[in-house]
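Incident log, entry 3
Record: Y+L amino acid transporter 2 (579 residues)
Problem: checksum mismatch between cached and fresh output.
Input:
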Amino acid sequence: MTNRCRTVRGTKQSSHTLPHLVFLRAAPKPLPLPRPRRRFHILPSSSHHTPREITRLRSEKSILTTTTISTDTTDTTSMPAKRVPTSDTTEALTAELEPMTPKEERPPGEVGEDETQKTQLKKELGLLEGVAIILGIIVGSGIFISPKGVLRETGSVGMSLVVWVMCGLMSMVGALCYAELGTSIPKSGGDYAYINAGFGSLPAFLFLWAANLIFVPTTNAIMALAFAKYVIQPFFPNCDLPDDAVRLIAALSICFLTALNCWNVRVTTKLQDFFMVTKIGALLIVIIAGIVHLCMGNTGNFHNSFQGTSTEPGEIAVSFYSGIFSYAGWNYLNFMTEELKNPFVNLPRAIYISLPLVTLVYVMANVAYLAVLSPVDMLASDAIAVTFADRLMGSGSWVMPLLVALSAFGGLSVHIMTSSRLCFVGARQGHFPDNLALINCKCNTPMSSLIFLGLLSLVYLSTTDIYRLIDYASFVESSFILCSIASLLYMRWKYPDMERPIKVNIIVPIAFLLVCGFLVFLPLYVRPYEVGMGLLITGSGVPAYFLFVYWENKPKIVRTALDQLTVWTQLLFVSVKTE
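Fresh output:
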């Protein structure tokens, strides 16, 4: 019997048929339609199939397309039953075999319609929050720690003040360049996005590698250690601080603020307003008390202020490291461009308001320090603000360590928030594992990135030598700021017609590039160990890039392990990847 049959309930039976069976003739085979030429794009990041599986998927895709076309010209009720892909299979096939359409090369700042995200970071930051973030990062623990490092390297009071002024001018010039970059390429990630747009994947990955392994966790550790030291200092007024207690309090502060940032961005940014008040309050106390002391005729520390100035260019460059660390954060709002309301307007305004104010406050604070404390006193002190308060305020000196501790605590909080976006954006671009590019469904925060950087920050608490950590962090930051400014100049040449809401004079980025080069290369023979370690860790990113990013055809066991890690992270943190 050549005819096929099937059971049909409720069908009238024929005298020549068995009960409940209907004989169907094979439907005429439709004429083959010419298959359009299509190029299929296999997404390596989300699909890991063998060549045989890819061939099967392509054949099922063609069957689905042919069946859809033939239903318009034939009677489907007379056709034999076939395996029809379910809706889940259809979606999987569409995702796996998405046709590639040629895209025109466009400037890095332009975003196509297909790049919009369904699950994404919310735009909750206005101008006030932007100013609070910049002030919250810059005015942290640095101004209460770095004056000692600047004075030690320069060798004189006058030269130390010159370095503070120059660091402020550098920050303002750099902020102008970053305002152009941030409005031309309105993407989160800051330097990572700019280096990637200018020089490609490998340099961007090296920045991401060095920033997340050196700069970000060391800066978090520095701020946490400063907070811990100022909290403990009143309990050990005439003794060395116990290292274990300092590490414990620093670790608790990192864990608490990481959890807070995982919970709610809005609450964290609102807290910055309070912390900003405490920072300004602490600095106003220092400045007002110092000016009053200076007006009373206590100007002896400023006589022959340039006597003993170091003549070594390398030592002067290292002194800039401590100053730059105090100003660090002037470019961090660029990391959160996607969360900023109207970034073309609010980003440059926040920079223009914050940087001149910070420079003025920092210079006046150093003048106040030097009006009360001699250079010898400053170099011998582990907590300059506490020593300053003990000298002038007497029994009320307990207020100063409290305000400084709150200042360092607020700086640590905002630094944890902004730096996590760098890790998140790098993972979203495929340079870090996918499990770091997840957003919590309820809180809309990059929870996995925050926890990852929090754990790395705890590792750097193994040392309490803050100034060595500052050298590590400042060298890496200066190196990649140099790369970002170079990318600005390159894109000026590569994309002359790219839309630039803010465009600075070409002399500004060139001058800033030369200054950054001075800060990067001169300390090589003064601090060879610190600079060498920074170069070694950064260079280790090259084999890591080719092993984890460039090499796409990884063994199936590796791909399966990465997929399972992503799924486990999603379940643990109730997170999804941005769509």
